[in-house]
Design a protein that fits this description.
Three copies of one chain form a homotrimer. In chain A, strands 1, 2, 3, 4, 5, 6, 7, 8, 9, 10, 11 and 12 form a twelve-stranded antiparallel sheet that branches. In chain A, helix 1 runs antiparallel to helix 4. Chain A has two domains: 2-142, Hotdog Thioesterase (Thiol Ester Dehydrase, Chain A, Roll); 168-321, Thiol Ester Dehydrase, Chain A (Roll). By secondary structure, chain A is α+β, with helices and mostly antiparallel strands. Helix content of chain A is 30%, strand content 30%. In chain A, a hairpin with a 4-residue loop joins strand 10 (234-244) and strand 11 (249-258). The radius of gyration of chain A is 20 Å and the shape is globular. At the A-B interface, strand 7 and helix 4 of A face strand 7 and helix 4 of B. Chains A, B, C: It is an enzyme of class 3 (hydrolase).
Chain lengths: 327, 327, 327
């Protein structure tokens, strides 16, 4: 799986949008898991994205490079499929290759005839028993995390009039998008990858408004897709900055869906997630980021929570590096 | 110039978006006027859209139909070109053709070397002297109108928290868009057609939120492009309903540009316009529209102004029909 | 039919992709032949692409130029239509026009009600009897050729681990694409032009990987569309280099379709074709190409076959030039 990165896939500095990469990752995951779930006789189904694990953007990709995406099923539970997707950027002029992403996605097979019916997943064969056990552990962990975020979902972004630079209100942004046919799967629901691309677009604008430089996606926290979004809905994607470290910005993004032609249902929160951005100089070096000015109690609390996530991630990474050094 | 209409060009009822048609119209106008302005030896230039006259959408276009777009230069002043663009929809299965739009656009040639320099336009030949005189009259009229709207441009859309259905705050909407390379002309500024497509997208969402049915663009009032928008800018497109008649809705749309990487300049109003929408039943018949509930003094004033425009247009149309009947 | 070429239509050197041009050619052919086949009362139908004759890319097209596409029906058999499509590039700044392509396409009318039913084509009028006879000869020739390629279709591309530069395995590439609604005709099958664009994308990646320079499409051998591809299918497009001359590369491209939700059918070969690329210097001059290193017996055989095609084309061209010189 490969595709050349085009000008529209990138910002004006030539760096491919994180959202473009997330969309490719999700498409690869959707194909492999739909294929797997239809591999045994039975009701035809389409795999719908339920969750993406935390994803780091390890190195930037540029216009003209080829993105190579490979996907593998690594675990199956009764009703879900875990897919591991790797992305490499390849400069086809020099031959240089770099790993840009390693992502883990969870899919659920929905019946083509009845979209509310979750079908059973054909089990995969494991080379070693430990692989199954580790997969099961990952499955249980993500299940717990999904429940937790579901409870957090009531938050709303309030508009601010005449905000000061570097405050939360100054950079917060939102867009609306009318869900068209090409945004949707065969079931008539929005591809998870389309949603993630819009989320990254909003988060990127928040980050750029805050620091007014060339910014790139550094990582995305785990994203849970609690609710499907139907063709013809209007989706509102809103982002606000929650935390800044010396060289990174954390942006919280909400996706609200309004299936307005369908009167039985009002607007609802479909997805939310945290994106982390860094600011780059013309030479591609990370730049210091202006500190976020928090004003309200809520903003201060969210800043502290963001700091917690930042320190936790930093600690995890250091532990991994030490472990790697020992081996 | 022709193109098959695809699902992505249309809403879920299969009606092609007015914005898609406006974008095709503008591309045809840009080609013919750039070609004309470079037809004599001299500095190379690109024609930039300055204004679109009021445009009616005479009949809906559907997925699978072919849009045939033809353009003709009808007047040249010293520094501007008037282009008449006609759009016909053609059902290639039945052979049925319908006029869907007749639009008049004004372009200004900008030097490729110095984008702030307006070049001279080679004069066209008129078959009859009256054509030149009528063209000059249209030129003077639009010049006046452009000055007037420039003064109206300070208005801002304020957010409303927990609005009631059918109020202005309930349906008002906005989107942000990061200007990419494919949105821009050779000069590195946004194509007028791209801006109009985004404006129609927002206006359509406002209309759909208000009446929760299938809506289509009925007309667009004259649009003036006062300010260019540079590649890499973030544009915010906001819409609010200003007036409803029994069977139509008027939506005011603002486009603000934020060239945030360019520190010398803050956010500015680039374009504003009025779009009129109608609501259609499944059989394509116009439906009654819920009346807009106005709350503030400003909303009431804008409603009355909208009513004025509505009655004026109605009177003009009746006069034209009587005139046509007499001939 | 005309359109301004945008950054996304081109590679990073600014040359418009051959695939973009092939897609425009096919759209023009589909419009004119669908229109013709519905010109008499009878069952409504959509013209489906059956074959494209060998097409040369006579001169490169650049971003900002306008592509003018014109189409004409040149022959009709009982069940097929031959369309001649010409493409000219126009620099609207200088007024310079160049013929970039002359293509011949064959379409077959499929009933809108029953996609497996081929309808009859209304006969066209010929100005001279010889035109009909020459058309009939072309018709018979292409019919034969279609049968031959059908038999060749079993071939598969195997991955190679750690390949050496300039071997076949080193540059071979593949991409997968999930067929969306905007890729499809009214019948719900992929437009031939969409398939050709993907094929050119893969062939271009293979060529760039081999010679690591700016490459452009020089020609495409006759392409036969044996099998339709349904909406919702996954298509895998794979390319491998088969032959290099001093200044050109031949790449074989396969398209396999997997209607994976549709249980009645497995993966199948839908199309295959040969693309020829040349490598260009920064000044647009053809560069020498590294020789392809063949390793296996099959690779050596394919190289010889490619050489045969190359010499045959060269001989034909020389004969045409001599003929032209004599007149």
């Amino acid at each position: 799986l490969g595709r050349i990165m085009r000008p529209d896939d990138a910002n004006i500095a030539g760096n491919v949008h994180g959202g473009t990469i997330l969309k490719m990752i999700e498409e690869a995951g959707a194909i492999i898991s739909t294929r797997h779930c239809n591999s045994q006789a039975g009701e035809p189904c389409v795999a719908a994205l339920a969750r993406v694990e935390r994803t780091d953007f390890l190195s930037p990709m540029c216009i003209g490079e080829v993105a190579n995406v490979s996907a593998e099923i690594t675990y199956t539970s009764r009703h879900s499929v875990e897919v591991q997707v790797n992305v490499m950027s390849e400069n086809i002029l020099t031959g240089a290759k770099k790993v840009t992403n390693k992502a883990t996605l969870w899919y659920v097979p929905l019946s083509l005839k009845n979209v509310n019916k979750v079908l059973e997943v054909p089990p995969i064969q494991y080379a070693r028993k430990e692989q199954e056990d580790e997969g099961k552990k990952r499955y249980e962990e993500q299940k717990l995390d999904r429940l937790e975020t579901k409870q957090r979902n009531g938050d709303v972004i309030f508009p601010v009039i005449n905000p000061e630079p570097h405050t939360v209100g100054y950079s917060q942004s939102s867009l609306i998008h009318l869900v068209g046919p090409s945004d949707c799967t065969l079931l008539g629901f929005v591809h998870g990858g389309v949603t993630m691309k819009l989320m990254d677009e909003v988060a990127g604008i928040v980050a750029a408004r805050h620091c007014k430089t060339n910014i790139v996606t550094a990582s995305v926290d785990a994203i849970n897709f609690h609710e499907k979004i139907k063709k013809g809905s209007v989706i509102t994607v809103s982002g606000r900055m929650t935390f800044t470290s010396n060289k990174s910005m954390e942006i919280e993004v909400f996706v609200d869906a309004d299936p307005f032609v369908d009167e039985s249902r009002g607007r609802y929160r479909a997805v939310s997630a945290f994106f982390t951005y860094v600011s780059l100089s013309k030479e591609g070096k990370p730049l210091p980021v202006p500190q976020l000015l928090t004003e309200t109690e809520d903003e201060k609390r969210r800043f502290e929570e963001g700091k917690g996530r930042y320190l936790q991630t930093k600690a995890k990474r250091q532990a991994q590096m030490q472990q790697a050094a020992q081996h």
